[in-house]
Amino acid sequence: MNHANGDGMAPLLAARKLSKTFRIKERHGLKRFPVDIRAVEEVDLVVGRGEVLGIVGESGCGKTSLARTLLLLERASGGTIELGGRAVDPADRAQAAEYRRAVQMVFQDPYASVNPRMTVAEIVEEPLLLQRPELDRAARQRIVRERLEEVSLGEQYMGRRARGLSGGQLQRIGIARALAVDPSLLICDEPVSALDVSIQAQVLNLLADIRETRGLSMVFISHDLSVVRQVCDRVAVMYLGRIVETGPTGLVLRHPAHPYTQALVSSEPRLARKGAARERIILRGDPPGPSTKSEACVFQKRCWRSRQSCDRQPALETVEETHLAACHFPADSGR
User: Fold this and answer.
1) pTM assigned to the model
2) Around Cβ 84, how many Cβ atoms within 10 Å?
3) Mean pLDDT of 5-27
4) H or E stretch including 33?
């Protein structure tokens, strides 16, 4: 995969062969044995400057594990992360601190991601205390006021406790907290899925305004394809820890090349599908467990196009231009 932008500049964020394995203990009879769970497996992705990359896939496919690994909240089991073309060494405290300041997260559950006993000002100020220790209190308070104005809450919220606020207000505070240290990239993990439908559009519009005003890049994780269509420039589809398809959002979701993406798109309500499969695809069989070791394609057991060559895991290959799929028998892009 090409890790440079069309203008020759390095992308803002790049991951190469990024993997994350968790070791757990499973009970077999009276004994417990260590088992490796491969949550993220050899993921390649790039995020350009000012670009929004969507990550989609069913629950348990590894989206959140990927996000936490990209944030250095989890130590990668393999592969590398680059910021602005420079490899990041998580063991180097100075590098890790610089990276964490540049890459911030908006969490899925606004109620669980803040301390309900803290005031709004304390919540937004917290990353400044950790990452901008040179700032005095007056400078921190000024930044807090500015960030609250940026998310349309205002100075009057500074002294309020988080426990008395709505989900939409708390998510705006979470966004303000993420913006406090002026990051270059936001990782948004299902940022509207816990909100009422009436509030979701407001938060999505706020993120769009922030992106335009600041020129921010984003990794936007979602299971809602209609939201991904609205927000994302490109999309990457995950299945069992692997990226199985990636490309421009409109092209991938109108003309999916990988059979899993076809099934995912076909599961949308009929009116939401534009140019993609009209009949719903029902996947047969169960996916292999994340601890199952196999050299075969991860989708082989559920794929209606499976052949003998699918005993080998396919690499992401070009379907057309910037549209890639990890499939030995991809459908035509339709372009």
Assistant:
1) 0.89
2) 14
3) 84
4) strand 31-47
